[in-house]
Amino acid sequence: MTDKTKQECYDGNVLPVVQMGHPILLERAKEVLPEHVSTAHIQRLIKDMRETMLAAPGIGIAAPQVGESLRIIVFRIPPGKEKGCLEGVPPTALINPGYEKVGDEMVKDWEGCLSVKGKRGRVPRYERIRYWGLTEKGVRVERTADGWLSRIVQHECDHLNGILYPQLVEEDDIIEEAWRSPLLLPEPETVVSN
Ligand code: NI
């Protein structure tokens, strides 16, 4: 079954995802000027990022992963799957996003990344954050998140600062081939690849 449902049809193009080792993944991505949000270039890029994320399939993607050094992320949680998020989160774009921790609780969990194919690692993240950014309509939003959504937003924001998750895996922890422990992986369409 394809991951793309009627509600998730964005008419974008699937773009190639650059892999670890490409210098764009190590750069600090550039802010998008608010007056540029409505331009055809930015609107097309967001559509293409959504399409690329859904096709992968992944649950998040950042613009540098498709070769654009701009501060734009797209993420989602498929509904009814797991991690206590029954209603899911529809594909959401955030421009010039930021976050700060709410409380000091840290949680380690498995992550993958569309730019680190075939691997996964246990990454410590803040359990709860406040995050913000502009929607694709240029409206500033500010929200809180915990659990899986908190993890996804932190992972995607890291991409905009040149950080890939393997840099955050602690020394005594492991990065392993994703296929080695298939029982620990979620269903294919919900693999945590950001
Ligand atoms: Ni990623």
Could you please describe the fold and organization of this structure?
The chain has 194 residues and is α+β, with helices and mostly antiparallel strands. It has a five-stranded antiparallel beta sheet with strand order 1-2-3-6-7. A three-stranded antiparallel beta sheet has the order 4-5-8. It is globular and about 45 Å long.
What level of helicity do the residues show? 10-25%
The major beta sheet can be summarized as: 5 strands, antiparallel
How would you sum up the global shape? Answer: globular
The assembly state of the depicted protein chains is: single chain
- Gyration radius, to the nearest Å? 16 Å
Counting H and I runs of at least 4 residues, what is the number of helices?
Answer: 2
N-to-C span:
21 Å
Order of helices and strands: HEEEEEEEHE
Please indicate the percent range of residues in DSSP E strands (runs of 2 or more). Answer: 25-35%
Order of strands, widest sheet: 1-2-3-6-7
Which class of secondary structure composition applies to the elements? alpha+beta
Give me the count of strands.
8
Bound molecules: nickel (II) ion
